[in-house]
Amino acid sequence: MFPDDRSRSATLFERARAVMPGANTRHMVTFAPYVIYAREGRGCRVTDVDGNSYLDWVNNFSANIHGYGFEPVVEALKRQAERMTCCILPEEKEIELAEIIVDRWRGVEQVRFANSGTEAAMVALKAARAITGRSKIAKTEGGYHGQYDLVEASFLPNERNWGPKERPAAPPLSHGTPQSLLDQAVIIPFNNIEVSLARLEEEKDALAAVIIDPIPARLGFVEADQSWLKALREFCTRSGVPLIFDEVFCGRASFHGAQGRLGVIPDATVLGKIIGGGMPIGAVGGLRSFMAIFDNLAGPLKVSHSGTFTANPMSMAAGVAAMRALTPETFARLEADGERLRAGITEVMADCGLDMRINGVASMSSLQFFQAPARDYREFHQRSGPNYLERMRGLHRLMLNAGILMATRGLMVGSTAMTAEDLDETINRARAAFGRFVECEAA
Ligand SMILES: Cc1ncc(COP(=O)(O)O)c(C=O)c1O
Fold this sequence. Notes:
alpha/beta, Aspartate Aminotransferase, domain 1, Aspartate Aminotransferase, domain 2, four-stranded mixed β-sheet, 14% strand, binds pyridoxal-5'-phosphate
């Protein structure tokens, strides 16, 4: 039972606390009163250091799309480790992974690698500035593009600091972020054509890029409206402002990524997670017109992009093996599994009389404390209610005790390692957790 003061995880947590502030290096994964420590993963299951087993519905925030111990990836890593883990000379695998990506994402005619989604988004924005000679970046309210100061603007705004609806403010996430940097962020509301276009038009002479996540996790994986996407596309083309899709998470929406599903092609695309087969990775890709800025063979360097571990052969090898195993049929199965999960959990919620919803697209799902999908960040925030975090923490704990690992904010992301039986088991286990949740909320 979690929490248990005498568990090995609790002991490790205390030990970790002495040497790491917060006991952990990832704020996103920490939960109270202690974090459970993993011992090993197999297929779609993780066993913790106390021997408890969980069906893993986080898959390291999507990266482990094949679950644990996926043989093609394990074999590729073994072979690569024997040959070399990193080297000053590039390896052929980098070209192979680039070819796979270029083949699948229509808006990616060329690509360059990075070590994380954060880094890739940062590089994409630097490139956009170098191309346009302008400095401001437009992003959506509540949009996540990694953890550096400019894109952290308006990541987790609230009623007290988000400003007027027709002119959203750019509050910082990290204390001490220079105001001069925040002044470079233009915040637009998701799905709101009128306000987005008004803000973009107003700032267009200073704008280097518009970056959006078209199926954001934080909004419960709602797909952006076609009309809003087309309005952004049209504005960006007309104004010479690169449109960037952050598909670090939602790249798993289809064989051709989120853009393939939504039918709108950006100038640049930021990728990560699944393309690395469980190893650290990021990538910035785009149309040739965008990517040309990186070509130092064609003239003087306009934007610098390098890194000791960038395109390291281990990530490239794992990425190639993972991506080759992701065929159109695999994506169809992942999507069918996602729909089955949502149907099963919806039934459980209805049986428990809960005013909740499991929203989602393809293999990405998210639990929320209201019914109709949210249209934007403010709606999601306000309809989630003031006790959202506390309630979700309670549900997260009950899911853990029912043997299901989900993200602390209710995200559930599938893997190819899940079988039909695993799905049924998930729904049965969730039934127990949701039943307890009703009892706890009533108490
Ligand atoms: C949409 C989006 N962008 C960027 C990132 C940052 O990627 P990374 O964690 O690899 O730095 C994430 C990570 O969750 C993400 O979901």
